[in-house]
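pasting for ref
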Amino acid sequence: MSQILIDFLQQHNLPREVIIFIISLFPIVELRGGLIAAALFKVPMMQAFLTCFVANIIPIPFILLFIKVIFKFLKKFRMFQPMVNWLENKAMSKSESVKNKQLIGLYCFVAIPLPGTGGWTGALIASLLDMPFQKSFLTIAAGVFSAGIIMLMITYFIPGLFGF
């Protein structure tokens, strides 16, 4: 997914910083994919981190505030019902640790950079569980920050130890 996106964006001669920003906006790849792309593009580490972090955080308040309204609206249309139901079920199937441990569960869910976790899914879960906006947003931001630190280790520090 991220390679297809990178190829598409490169064909349009966008600066590498814009490319990693756009990648980090997308669900699934988010900051994790943005930092991998940044390392491949040799974007300086701090610039890469800040760019990817900001881009990953931008959609979070909108998801927290509006996703339930958007889903309710989309469910009125038969063609969107399966997609919305799938997204809700997928998010709720991953929500057990968040339900049980609330904010610390939400933080851990977002902070551990594994497939299917991250800010987008964390915000969806927080919204569906009716968690308070401000606490959810700050917790998700902290999780994205932590995931970014982990990804910096993977994409910048470890390869640097081996001379890559």
